[in-house]
Each structure stands twice: as C-alpha cells, then as structure tokens.
Amino acid sequence: MLNKIVLASGNAGKLREFSQLFASWEVEVLPQSEFGVNDADETGLSFIENALIKARHASRISGLPALADDSGLAVDALRGAPGIYSARYSGVGATDEKNNAKLLEALSDAETDQRTASFHCALAFVRQWDDPVPLVCSAKWSGTILREPAGDQGFGYDPLFFVESEGMTSAELPREAKNRLSHRAKAMAQFELLWRQNMQGADLA
Q1: Which fold has domain 3-198?
Q2: Which sequence positions are flagged as catalytic?
C-alpha cells in the first residue's frame, strides 16, 4: 500500500511542491481538506511552534502522519515584525497589498542600511499527532526591504524583498532561481535530508 501523509495546508502551490518532492519515494501527499481538517489556531510564538501546532492538528483529525510549514518575514528594524503575523499584518481583511503598504509605512523613516530583513520557513513532520520526536527544520533568506514594490511574480512581500546577490526583488526572480534560493527551498532541502536519514522506507500508513 502506498504510504500517505497529510499536508496541513490548503495552499495548492505547497501541495504541488511537496507532492513532487515525495513522488520518487512512493509517498502520496494529501491536502488536509480531504479529511475535513480546518486551519489550526496558530497560538505559537515562533514559526517552528506554529508549524508543529498545524502538523499535530492535521494528524489528530486525519489519523495520518502530517507535514506543515509556517513562514513569514522578519524585519530587523521592526524587532522581527511582522514575523509570525506576516499574513495578517494589516489586520482583519489583510491582503498582500495592505500588508506591503503597512510595512512601507512602518519603515518610512528607515535608511537603506536599516531595512535589512529575512524570510523564514519552518517545517514540521509528525508520525502521529502526539509524536515526541517530530522532524523539524528551518531556514532563512536574507534581503533588504525596498521603498516601493518591483516585479509581479510571487506573492506576499516578494515585490519589496530585494535579493542583493541577484540584483532584483523576489518578485522579479525567475521561478527556477527562486526555487533554488528561497527560504522554503532551503527548508525543503534540509527536510529531504532528514527524511532520508530517518523515514525513508518506513511504513507510514
């Protein structure tokens, strides 16, 4: 029987990415919606805590192993904000445009050398909801926040996130480059290594 895990997300792009990652290992990745799993209450104070909360929540309801990620932007001059609140930074009814506008306003008086920031991604995998030894990894991607958006690729804060090594924003990067450089790409590479060391060949479900 094909091994199965639940992705604790309703994001179609994430499902596609992780399905491709696991395809060669005969592991089927299923969205949490197939099991009637609603989004978990993200009550953690870090990306890793929230990833674990989401993974345990999806595993408890589905009865299957679960994988979750939590990601966001941390701006140094704002003491790490918006951080775990990145997606809802501008409050109720938050959109990418509103979040970006609020970030630009918060940094309106910041000089270029004060606009450093980093994207963060944490991944958590649990074999069962109360797994005492989950697989956990995290990665970051450093950059600088511009004064106005550039590029129409990507989402979230990508149009403001300038990648110095590439001379452009995350929203201007070709997809192949972003899939190599991004925080999520780095975290997935770490997770692949952990999986091979700890889980490959294991009977999951």
Answers
A1: Maf protein (3.90.950)
A2: 70
